[in-house]
Amino acid sequence: MELMSGNEAIARGAWEAGATIGVAYPGTPSTETMESFARYEGVYAEWCTNEKVAVEVGVGASAAGARVLATMKHVGVNVAADPLLTAAYTGVNGGFVILAADDPGMYSSQNEQDSHFYALAAHIPSLDPSDSAEALEFAREAYEISERFDVPVMIRSTVRVSHTKTPVEVGEKLDYEQKAYEKDPAKWVMMPAFAKPRRKAQLARDAKLREWVEGCPFNQVEHKGTAVGVICAGAAYQHVVDALPEASILKLGVTWPLPQKLVADFAASVDDLYVVEEGSEYLTGQVKELGVKVSDFPAPLPKDGELSPGLIKRAFGIEVPAHDEAPDDVPGRPPALCAGCPHRLVFKELSRIKAIVTGDIGCYTLGTLPPLSSMDTCIDMGASVSMSHGFELALAGTDHRPVVAVIGDSTFGHSGLSSLITTVYNRGAGTVCILDNRTTAMTGRQGNPFNGVTLQNRPSRELDLVGVLEALGIEHVTQVNPHDMKAVRSAIKTATKEQADELSVIVFKAPCVLLHRERKPFFFVNADCHACGACATLGCPAISKDAETGIAAIDPMQCIGCGQCAQYCAFDAIEQTTSSAKGGAL
Ligand SMILES: Cc1ncc(C[n+]2csc(CCOP(=O)(O)OP(=O)(O)O)c2C)c(N)n1
After folding, report:
1. Is there an atom of ligand 1 within 6 Å of 79 CB?
2. Does ligand 1 lie within 6 Å of residue 25's CB atom?
């Protein structure tokens, strides 16, 4: 017996099933799955530039005969949807399993989505583990299902299942022999003449899957009483067990296709049937489509966010003791860029010149929050560059503010590059700031093409970012140290004023503070502080102001000695210690 998170258990299950190839782009709450899979013996695992590429590499490896694991967060499935929906036609050779990890409650995402809808659209089985033991079991079995029915299989997890550690029984690694590859264009070349019969094959497969799912042991009925019956899956099941100990439960381990007879029989065995699901109406809709009557909750169950036993109790009109729920008045702890973060001064300067800043997704999205208050927009990865092009087109000289896109190195590799090519091709203008902190920081410092670090530390090639930009034919490309206020200011000024009518790209290159482990002597505020507050406008968590006097202070435990603040002090009141005292813990 071992304690594993759902993500670790999925990796273990895939390894036990004989999966030898892992492909992913990081994204919370899925990331640790591939990091964990990569540590097993005999597997090859890699970060791809984005989820579409990951699924395509995966389809290639599956076609060639290997068992493959692909992992991504829910929004990554949007990116991968193109190959996924056609891979659902081609089917597989070696088993192909895709983890879609959803984030109800948006702990670290830009939206809430229910990936079940992709399984429905693609006609591929969706398996919903409710704890780590099931995550391991379902992942292991998913490969058999994939090969038996010639179909990619989705494991749909949520943050609670992916990140909670529960006991698992680990097994032995299966002695799986990679299949042979045989050329078969009618299966693998999806041109209309071949896709049409594959579409028919897909529909015929649906019927087989519907037959199989009726007897699939992943779906379980827990009979308690006949008054209330609840259909649920995944994390919602755990909350229902806590909230409604008297209710009978149909726990669905397979959420597409639904076991029609099992659902109908269960519904007939209870007086009132409810469907409890998180932030979605997928299951409710599927059950209703079978002609089964679903009762309304006595009080509304939220349609957004994560569920909890308390929320479910309330929906059923059960009183919830105060200690069951977190109080509403817990002080908020807004996230902030780390002390010494190389992104900080870029936002400070863009805010100072009142630029329109189209932002992107990464640590640097925090440049939106006060006191930097810099970013105007952020919707999905890569959008900063394409949206700035859109702003330029629509404003076309009618607004005096410069339009600046801000994007991280990993996000640029993910999809910013294709956006930039659109701007170059159409002779767009504006400034693009690439914040190259030498890592994919937001999701836990993964490697990417521009730092050349690979998941399994295999030899790689670090892409020359400036070289790539110059090769696109962009005339104004500069590289700047983002800790140097004057250099940052001057580069932004040149790009937004002198080169205002053209396209310019500034690469701000300095390692993330969590990578750069050398500690420098910390800074402190001396007696010359005039309480002007300039240093505090940087939003560095190490800097505070006395509530009454306004005099600044620097917390030596948090300061890492980057010296950004000292450059903003007009009174030379911020000094670096000369002693060997080092900055705070990293
Ligand atoms: C389609 C999609 N895939 C993955 C993610 C998860 N994610 C958010 S930001 C990010 C990368 C951030 O790295 P980078 O652009 O280098 O910025 P940094 O955090 O290092 O500042 C990732 C992978 C996402 N939000 N959307």
Report:
1. yes
2. yes
